[in-house]
Design a protein that fits this description.
heterodimer; A: 345 residues; alpha+beta; elongated; B: 225 residues; alpha/beta; Rossmann fold; 6-stranded mixed beta sheet; 35% helix
C-alpha cells in the first residue's frame, strides 16, 4: 500500500483506488501552498499520475502503464527504499531523465541509457532512461517516473496543474484529524487518510471474499464428490484384487489402509498438479490483463503465490480425498467375496 | 483329520428359484492327503471349496478345521486361518497385476508380518521351486498362463499352510501345461506333507489323488480308486 503515513489530497469527486486518482479533476498548483498552510501538515508533494489503458485484442481491466510525475527530490515518498537495477543512476532533472519499472523495461527492451520518445496531445519529448527500478510492485513495475515538470507538460501543456498532493502530517496519529481539517479549510478537496482509503476498497474486498468463500466451498464439495466417484470406480474395477486380498486373509484394517493411502496419494497428486496448473493459469491470465511479461511472473512465482497458501491447498486436497477415501474403503470391505471371486472379468 | 464337514449345505435364492449349490455334504479329509473333487460346471465344486476355505458361510451344517467348529470363529479368526493355515490357487490365478512376480509371492508373507528380508528370501526360494527364478521381476501380464499359475502356487505355499485349496487350477491351461502344474502341485505338497483339496472337471487330473470324490447337483459321492 502506498502512502501509509501520508494523506492523499485530490479534487472533490475524484475516484481514488488505493492511493491514486483514477478519474477526477485537476488541482491548481496554488492548492499546494494552501494545503501546506493547514495546521499540522509537515510537508507536501505534488504529483501528476496518469493511467494508460489500451483496447486491443484484449480489453485491459488494469492499466497497461502508469506515468507518474513527481519532484525527484521527493522520489522516496513514492518509491521508499526501492533500489535501481545494477548499471542505473538516479535521474538528473536538467538532463530530462526518467526511471522506469522492470516490466516496462523488459517489454520495450529498455536499459540504463536508452533513449525513449514520449508524446501526448500537448507535448513530444526525447527522454533518457537513467535507471530501471528493482521492484516487485505491480504498479511501479509498469510505471514511467518523470520529473513533475515534464509530466505536467505532457498532461496539460503547462505547469499550472497537478492531480494529487501527498501531505505528510506532523504526527502520524493525527492523520484523520488533519485530513478532515484540509477538507474543511479548503473547499473542493478530498483528503483521504489510510483508513478512508481502505474503507473505499473494503466493500469490494469483502464482496470478493464472500464470493471466494462460496466458490471455494462449492469447489471443495464438487472435488470431494469427484474423488469419491473416481475412487469408487477404481475400487469397482479392481474388486477382484481386493477380493483376492480378502481371500488370502488380509486383515480388514490392511484393506482399509491400502484404499486410504491410495486416495490420499491421489489427493496429493491432484493437489500438486492443481496448484501447478492453477498457478500457471493465474499467471497467464494476470499477464494478459496487466501486460506484465510472463517471465517476470515466473521469476518470482513464489512471491506471488505464497508457500503457506500452496501448503494449505495441498493439505486440504489430501484431507478431502482422505475423507472421500473412507467411503471408498468401506466399499472395498463390503465386496461379496464368493461372488467376486467367481465372476469372470 | 484336517477338515470335516457335517451335513454342509449352501442354498442360493435366485429370483423365485432356490438352488442347493451344496447339499448335505459330509466329507473328511486326512492330513497330508491329496483329495480331488470331480464334477461338471455348476455342480457345486467352487461353493464347497469356498465353504471349506472359510470364504463363504453355509446355510446349514458345519465345517470343522482341525476339529474346531469354524462357525464359532470371528471374522478376524477366520481371516487368520486363511492367512496362516490355508493356501488358495484359483482357476484364473488372481495375481495382483500391479505387483511383480516376487511381490505377489511376498504378499501373504507381508500380511503375516514376516520381516522384509525373510519375505524376499522365502519368495525367491518358492519361485525357484516352481522354476520361475528367471521371471522374478516380471508383472503378471508378461507371463504365460502356465507361469501365472506357478506364481499362484508359490503364493499359496508362502506361509507354509497345512491345506491348499485349488479351484480348477488347470481350467485355463492346455493339457500339457495342466499336467505340469498338477505334477508340480503333487511334488511340492507331498514333499511338505501339505494337504491338497483340488476341484476339477477333468478325469485325468482327478486320477492323481489319494482320494477322489464326485459332485453333482451339490451332492458329494466318494469314488473308490
Amino acid at each position: 500500500m502506498f502512502f501509509r503515513e501520508e494523506i492523499v489530497v485530490v479534487a472533490e469527486g475524484s475516484w481514488v483506488v488505493q492511493a491514486f486518482p483514477v478519474i477526477g479533476e485537476n488541482l491548481p498548483i496554488s492548492t499546494l501552498e494552501k494545503v501546506n498552510q493547514v495546521e499540522g501538515v509537515k510537508t507536501v508533494v505534488p504529483m501528476v499520475v496518469r493511467f494508460g489503458y489500451q483496447v486491443e485484442a484484449v480489453i485491459q481491466l488494469v492499466p497497461t502503464n502508469v506515468s507518474i510525475g513527481i519532484p525527484f527530490g521527493n522520489l522516496s515518498v513514492l518509491i521508499g527504499q526501492t533500489p535501481l537495477k545494477p548499471g542505473g543512476t538516479w535521474p538528473v532533472v536538467a538532463q530530462e531523465e526518467v526511471v522506469v519499472g522492470p516490466s516496462l523495461a523488459l517489454e520495450w527492451n529498455f536499459d540504463a541509457g536508452s533513449k525513449i520518445k514520449v508524446s501526448s496531445k500537448h507535448a513530444y519529448m526525447n527522454l533518457t532512461v537513467s535507471g530501471i527500478l528493482d521492484t516487485r510492485s505491480a504498479l511501479l513495475s509498469r510505471s514511467i517516473i518523470l520529473p513533475l515538470r515534464l509530466a505536467q507538460q505532457l498532461s496539460y501543456g503547462h505547469t499550472m496543474f497537478v492531480n494529487m498532493i501527498i501531505a505528510e502530517p506532523e504526527y502520524i496519529d493525527q492523520q484523520e484529524l488533519i485530513a478532515n481539517r484540509i477538507e474543511q479549510e479548503i473547499p473542493g478537496l478530498k483528503a483521504l487518510s489510510i483508513n478512508e482509503r481502505n474503507q473505499i476498497v473494503e466493500p469490494l474486498l469483502s464482496d470478493i471474499e464472500t464470493w471466494n468463500l462460496g466458490l471455494s466451498s462449492v469447489l471443495y464439495l464438487l472435488s470431494m464428490i469427484l474423488v469419491i466417484m473416481v475412487s469408487t470406480m477404481n475400487i469397482s474395477e479392481r474388486r477382484r484384487d481386493f477380493a483376492t486380498l480378502d481371500a488370502i486373509g488380509a486383515p480388514k484394517s490392511t484393506i482399509f489402509r491400502i484404499v486410504m493411502i491410495e486416495t490420499a496419494l491421489i489427493g496429493l497428486l491432484g493437489g500438486v498438479l492443481g496448484v501447478l496448473l492453477g498457478s500457471i493459469a493465474a499467471v497467464l491470465i494476470a499477464s494478459i490483463y496487466t501486460s506484465i511479461p510472463l517471465s517476470l511472473f515466473f521469476a518470482d512465482l513464489l512471491a506471488f503465490i505464497s508457500p503457506f497458501f500452496l501448503t494449505k491447498i495441498i493439505t486440504s486436497t489430501v484431507v478431502i480425498s482422505s475423507i472421500a477415501g473412507i467411503l471408498s474403503a468401506i466399499t472395498a470391505l463390503r465386496i461379496n467375496l464368493p461372488e467376486t471371486l467367481r465372476a469372470e472379468y | 483329520m484336517i477338515v470335516k464337514t457335517q451335513d454342509l449345505t449352501r442354498i442360493y435364492q435366485l429370483g423365485t428359484s432356490i438352488i442347493s449349490a451344496v447339499n448335505r455334504v459330509n466329507l473328511e479329509i486326512r492330513d497330508a492327503s491329496f483329495v480331488t473333487i470331480l464334477g461338471p460346471s455348476g455342480s457345486g465344486k467352487t461353493t464347497l471349496l469356498n465353504l471349506i476355505g472359510l470364504i463363504d458361510q453355509p446355510t446349514s451344517g458345519k465345517v470343522y478345521f482341525r476339529n474346531q467348529d469354524v462357525s464359532l470363529l470371528t471374522d478376524k479368526e477366520r481371516r487368520n486361518i486363511r492367512l496362516h493355515s490355508m493356501g488358495f490357487v484359483f482357476q484364473t490365478f488372481n495375481l495382483l497385476p500391479t505387483l511383480t512376480t516376487v511381490e505377489n509371492v511376498e504378499l501373504p508373507l507381508a500380511l503375516a508380518k514376516i520381516s522384509g528380508q525373510l519375505q524376499h528370501k522365502r519368495a525367491i526360494e518358492l519361485l525357484t521351486a516352481v522354476d520361475l527364478s528367471h521371471r522374478l521381476h516380471h508383472r503378471p501380464r508378461e507371463l504365460s498362463m502356465g507361469e501365472m499359475q506357478r506364481v499362484a502356487i508359490a503364493r499359496a505355499l508362502a506361509n507354509d499352510p497345512c491345506l491348499i485349496l485349488a479351484d480348477e487350477p488347470t481350467g485355463e491351461l492346455d493339457t500339457e501345461t495342466g499336467s505340469e502344474i498338477i505334477k508340480l502341485l503333487v511334488d511340492l505338497c507331498q514333499g511338505k506333507k501339505t494337504t491338497v483339496l483340488l476341484t476339477t472337471h477333468d478325469k485325468k487330473v482327478a486320477e492323481v489323488a489319494d482320494e477322489r470324490y464326485y459332485i453333482q447337483d451339490g451332492k458329494l459321492e466318494y469314488e473308490s480308486s
